[in-house]
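The records we work with from here on pair a chain with its fold. The integers have meaning only within a learned vocabulary of local backbone shapes. A complete example follows; check for yourself that the lines match position by position.

:::
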Amino acid sequence: MLGPVILAASRSDRMRRLVSAAPMTKQVVDRFIPGEGVDEVLPIIQGLTDQGLELTMDVVGEDITTPAQAEAARDAYLELIDRLKPLDLGTRAEMSVKLSMFGQALDGGHELALKNVRPVVEAAAEIGTTVTLDAEDHTTLDSMFAIHEELRRDVPQTGCVIQAYLFRTEADARRLADSGSRVRLVKGAYKEPAEVAHQQRHEIDKAYVRILRILMAGEGYPMVGSHDPRLIAIAQELAAAAGRKLDEYEFQMLYGIRGEEHLRLAREGHRMRVYTAYGTDWYGYFMRRLAEKPANLRFFVRSMVSHG
């Protein structure tokens, strides 16, 4: 399987240098990451919302080694919120954050991440939108869920992400569904050991459906993070069986992948949110997109060859 190989490459400084130095890399990366700064992405936000789509914005970057870098990540999100305010989009443009960017892996990282992410969550609430805490590898999840619970005491609409390939996720889904939280379900994009995660694609897909059934039947707001046509169709069936209206759940897909499907779902009245990342530290995010879906890797290789 190529996925684990690509994920290993995402942590390699040598591969980072090779990929970054390739002449055509930027043209390919632009498919998935539309800009490096706020000024570049604001027209993208406006254009997508004008088409009836919604967004969740991610400022990319996870290699945080100092508290100062974590504070800079906080400030980047605060700048984004400040620039979103005059657009008056409300929840049509929310944010996704990785707690690793806010210092979670540093000494005292749990408290540091909570301290840095809180003002972002509060500022988002002030302009009528919200924040979703992205899931990372399994060793960080207890901290993420604890921070999520703490933030929801003051900002109940704060969301979180759960990953279908982890054995623990069905139990997490039951707890979160009962609490009425906003929950994005994804398959998972980190290399996890067999002791904690399903390794076969068909097992991951089956787990995804089981967990999605729990969320749709619960009291929360499910966010279906998938590009898989089968899972999208199943999600619609489960939502209908649970008596959910079209505004009581949503679909989420990545910027640059299945754009016509984004528009189709929106035209049918579904809430369709586009996960849109931007920033200069794009390498880790980009490599995970390649690992998640073989078609992404084929697109990258074809582009490099045709432009080489």
In short: Residues 303-308 have pLDDT under 50 and may be disordered. The chain has 13 helices and eight strands. Strands lie at 54-59, 93-97, 131-133, 159-163, 182-186, 221-225, 250-254, 272-278. Residues 67-84 form the longest helix (18 residues).
